[in-house]
Amino acid sequence: MRPLPRLSFAILCCTFGGLAMGQGATPPPPPSKPLSTSLDMVVFPAKGQTAQQQSQDEGECYAWSKGQTGVDPMAPATTTAATAPPAQEPASQPASQSGGTRLRGAARGAAAGAVIGEIASDDAGEGAAIGATVGVMKGGAESRKQKAAAESAAATSAQQQASQQQAAQQEQVDLFKKGFAACLESKGYTVK
Questions:
Q1: Whole-angstrom Cα distance, residue 45 to residue 53?
Q2: Residues 40, 170: contact at Cβ < 8 Å?
């Protein structure tokens, strides 16, 4: 009677071991995203090419178009220091001008105040002091206005530069896509 339990145990181990192996097998990896889909393009195999053949052809055409145009749309865009707007220059110019604007305002105000003070109360000194104070305040206001205008102009310039750079990058990507599509069409695909 002893051999029967051993045989049953062996059969049970084989059965559960086989089931466990079947359940433990990893499923095939999901299909990767085609290059054409990554480029926002639709490619149809017009001559009955397989998915594997299409993937291979897309890879070849990607490499060909990259070599012909010098553009790699999958590579991250890099900005150089030459294309970045300078951050220090606009701030240093208005700072040096603000002292001059206030000083000029004070001088003009003092001169006008001296004339008015002399005429009004026969005290040119008091009129000059009041005029100088008003002139400094007016010069400061002009300085702030000039600084705001310079900052606005710098921001507008930076925005225009960024738009131009983005348009240039889009032009290059479009050129790459034309080459990619031309290559695939020559291999019997319909590209949209």
A1: 9
A2: no
| The dihedral sign for the CA sequence 160, 165, 168, 169 | negative
Residue at 109: amino acid letter:
G
Which CA distances in Å does 85 have to 78, 154, 161? 15, 9, 8
**101-140 residue pLDDT tens:** 667 766 776 666 666 666 666 666 776 677 777 777 777 7
Pick from 179, 174, 145: which is nearest to 66 by CA?
179
Q: Residues 58, 34: contact at Cβ < 8 Å?
A: yes
- Tell me whether strands 189-191 and 43-45 are parallel, antiparallel or unpaired: antiparallel
Q: pTM for the whole thing?
A: 0.51
Q: How far apart are the C-alpha atoms of 39 and 34, rounded to whole Å?
A: 9
Which pLDDT tens digit goes with each residue over 9-26?
555 555 555 544 545 445
What is the rounded CA–CA span in Å between residue 163 and residue 152? 16
